[in-house]
Amino acid sequence: MIVRSFDELENTDRHVKAASGTWESKRIVLARERVGFSLHETVLHTGTETTMWYANHVEAVVCTAGEAELTDHETGTAYTITPGTMYLLDGHERHTLKVKEEFRCLCVFNPPVTGLEDHDENGVYPLLTEPPLTAPHGG
Question: Is the whole model's pTM more than 0.90, yes or no?
Answer without folding.
Answer: no
